[in-house]
Amino acid sequence: MSTVATPGLWAVTVAAVLALLALDFALTRKPHEVSMREAVGWSVFYVALPLAFGAYVWTRFGSTTGLEYLTGYLVEKSLSVDNLFVFMLLLSAFAVPKELQQRVLLFGIAAALVLRAIFIALGAAVLANFTWAFLLFGAILLVTAVKVLRDQLSGGSHDLDVSSMRSVRLIRRFVPVTEDYRGTRLVVREAGRRALTPLAVVVVAIFATDIVFAVDSVPAVYGITGDPFLVFATNAFALLGLRALYFVLQGALSKLVHLGYGLAAILGFIGVKLVLHWAHGIWPGVPEVPTLASLLVIVGVLALVTLTSLYATRGGGDPVGSAHLAHLGTPTEEGSDVPAEEADRSVGTRPGHPSDRA
User: Fold this and answer.
1) What CA dihedral angle connects 258, 260, 266 and 269, to 10 degrees?
2) CA dihedral sign of residues 50, 52, 55, 56
């Protein structure tokens, strides 16, 4: 597949991403509770950086490439907000101490970057050799959109059933898990043998959910641009700012009760766009969706669901109907697939040992 990036630009971009990731690990080496001032400062930085990079892409490679980058970044950023809901569920279910939360988020971001790089490379290889892959990617997004919509309508979490994370208890059959957190350490020596800490179990759970997000997000951005470099850049920039964004939006996330509808619409729209692109290669008379039109549709959908969400939660009422936060409220209603004890943990109760919550 063609790309605007030279080997030198690839090297500089990858090096910059790794340097920023290393900086984040250095900053979180000493556990501390993140203040709003710190979170806002880093969030501003991680928004300004990709926008500045977008300005460079626009001036260096032209408006068409610049639009593809900005549209892809917006898609990935909106999907990354969905990541935050799942991270919120996991951090709450495992009762991760506040001073360790940013460390857990960072492990999740690092794992997501690795997975996205793998999926991007595989996606580029498939699209370059098999034109029907556009149809396959489009079908994946359409199926995902339907599932997101159905889960939103039913009030269930479309991304993660926290109770399913009990599967990580299998780890304890092979490796012992300590009864409490040990700072930022993942592995410790206890009673003469190595043991995992609850922090390691949370990281495993986040890694598992990252795989699901990679399957959704990579085809979505390939629906905007076929340039692997732009796909990588948009994914990397969208993910790097998640750690700080989480603490900025932690309270506001519960207000986005209609985000599921917006994500379903965006994924469905991009799915149709990919199918049309595939059909256009076979029947030239089939129209394609311009990048500018895609950008306007995505911005419009996000603005609409934000406004309707704020209207639905006006007055500080309980954000009823949020598919993402369905498991963060009071004990579940009859018929829910999440046990009441799991719901109790989701609201911050800390019974027994952290390893029991794994």
Assistant:
1) -110
2) negative
Helices and strands of the chain, counted as H and E runs: 12, 2
Q: What is the 3-state secondary structure (H, E, C) of 305-331?
A: HHHHHHHHCHHHCCCCCCCCCCCCCCC
CA angle 12, 17, 38 (to 5 degrees): 135
Q: What angle do CA 54, 119, 55 make, to 5 degrees?
A: 0
Would you state the pLDDT for residue 321? 43
Question: How many C-beta atoms lie closer than 10 Å to residue 1's C-beta?
Answer: 15
Which residues are within 8 A (CB) of 314 and not within 5 positions of it... i.e. 6 or more apart?
A: none
Q: What is the mean pLDDT of residues 105-132?
A: 84
Whole-angstrom distance, CA of residue 64 vs CA of residue 62: 6
Q: Which is more confident, 63 or 286?
A: 63
Cα of first residue to Cα of last residue in the chain, in angstroms, is 43
Q: What is the pTM of this model?
A: 0.73
| pLDDT over 70 (residue 102) | yes
Q: Are 50 and 71 in contact (CB under 8 A)?
A: no
Of 233, 215, 208, nearest to 77 by C-alpha is 233
Chain Cα centroid distance, residue 255: 18
CA distance 350 to 358: 12
